[in-house]
User: Fold this.
Amino acid sequence: MLKSYYHNVDEVGTDEAGRGCLAGPVTAAAILLPKDFKNDILNDSKQLSHGKRDFLRPILENDCRCYGVAHVYPEKIDEINILNASILAMHKAIDLLSITPKFIIVDGNRFKSYKNIPHKSIVKGDSKFMSIAAASVLAKTYRDAYMEALHEQFPMYNWKKNKGYPTKEHREAILKYGTTKYHRKSFRLLPDQLTLEF
Assistant:
């Protein structure tokens, strides 16, 4: 059972999607839910089917008090590393909120202070608190849509299916076709026994 809030104040939940991908952005969402928000389907996005995530997205967008979604792209990921890029994406998502939060709860164990607003990092927070679960759903659905659009330009990598994650099929396509500007060059794109010249 997901909890409504950590502190009884204007509290924003934030989470990211795409941290472990070989291609595409890391995407974060931040959302401020009403205190009385209830939804029987909402859960950590990883525990939900594609269909349930897509069903929830407009409900969350319509019923929340405000939300923001932001991408940080591969060039920046390669420059500052994936952890810092994930935190940057969450900061950018919070920047987009129309209400300034009094408290921020974050999925995971690492975060950097945002404008001196108190925050709490919560391991597996997306399976504990509604606002973090809601943020995980928004981040995942927005990122999936982005990768599905990119798939039209680069169908050989099958991003429509793998969303840029390091599947066997994706890595075989990298070996065969090389990389794109959407690949994260700082990541190990291929196993150690295979090499690729950039």
About this structure: The chain is about 35% helix and 15% strand.
